[in-house]
Design brief:
The chain contains nine helices and twelve strands. By secondary structure, it is an alpha/beta fold. The radius of gyration is 17 Å and the shape is globular.
């Protein structure tokens, strides 16, 4: 049955930011996200609530930046200052950022030693985006994000369009069963950057050893952890990787199982709302 106690020290509190507020994410339907009730949409207050439970690690998604709007740099800085522990931030890194955005990111990283930047497959134009980020940020502060939707590997629209144009073959995901999807929902074709293993290999070459695995469709749904087997396979193949994952967590047993399958931190939000 598993433990009935939350492993708070192994959890990473999730905070999704939109328009300066913390919002409750459900299944990636970002246009319908509402402010988190527990903190009345105050992300810094939400950090404090997580910390009172004993959570010391945090995953932050700047949904504005991910959708192509301005980076919420000042707010991210406030959150990092309040967190007091490790913070990983997905700010929609594509690899084609302007110098102004790069300056804001490097300032943010320099100001907060606890903060790491995620380069996620949903927005990164190719694995080379990791190399571009490594030109601006020390590799120990970089994390590769593998995004999925309903078990299908998710890549940026730019990468999807490029692969569809130049390659005729349909790609499959890590387990060689389901087709890859572009951010717009189109199937992606085989070439560099089309499979999770290609992204992981490139990250390892750069000596990036942190990985976030997230299935967007399960976020906020409390359907049970869906990434556990994938985490186990990737961890077995790459023992030095530090893996964070989540989405769908319902109970302490789900969290314990995901950790046993190779995760260092279990991403969580909805299942804790009753405790905040």
């Amino acid at each position: 049955m598993g433990s009935t106690q939350w492993p708070f020290g192994d959890l990473a509190g999730v905070i999704d930011l939109a328009g300066g507020q913390s919002v409750h994410a459900i299944a990636g339907q970002r246009e319908s996200y509402a402010p988190t009730r527990a903190s009345d949409g105050d992300p810094v207050a939400l950090v404090r609530q997580y910390r009172r439970l004993g959570i010391q690690s945090f995953y932050i998604a700047d949904l504005d930046a991910i959708s192509g709007q301005a980076l919420q740099a000042a707010l991210l800085g406030e959150i990092a200052a309040e967190a007091g522990g490790e913070v990983l931030v997905d700010l929609g890194w594509s690899g084609a950022e302007s110098e102004t955005v790069i300056d804001a990111i490097t300032t943010l990283v320099a100001s907060h030693s606890c903060l790491g930047i995620i380069a996620a497959t949903e927005t990164a134009h190719s694995p080379k985006a990791l190399s571009r980020l490594a030109e601006c940020v020390a590799v120990e502060r970089i994390c590769l994000g593998l995004d999925f939707r309903g078990g299908q590997f998710l890549v940026s629209k730019k990468l999807s369009d490029r692969r569809m144009k130049h390659q005729p073959r349909v790609a499959v995901d890590w387990d060689h069963r389901t087709p890859l999807l572009g951010a717009g929902g189109n199937e992606v074709n085989v070439e560099v950057g089309s499979t999770p293993s290609q992204w992981i290999d490139h990250a390892i070459k750069l000596e990036i050893n942190r990985l976030v695995i997230l299935d967007i469709a399960s976020v906020g749904k409390q359907v049970g952890a869906v990434t556990g087997e994938l985490c186990r396979e990737i961890k077995q193949a790459n023992p030095k990787l530090c893996i964070w994952s989540g989405g769908g967590i319902r109970s302490p047993s789900d969290a314990h199982q995901l950790i046993q399958q190779g995760c260092s931190r279990c991403l969580i939000a909805t299942a804790l709302h009753g405790l905040l």
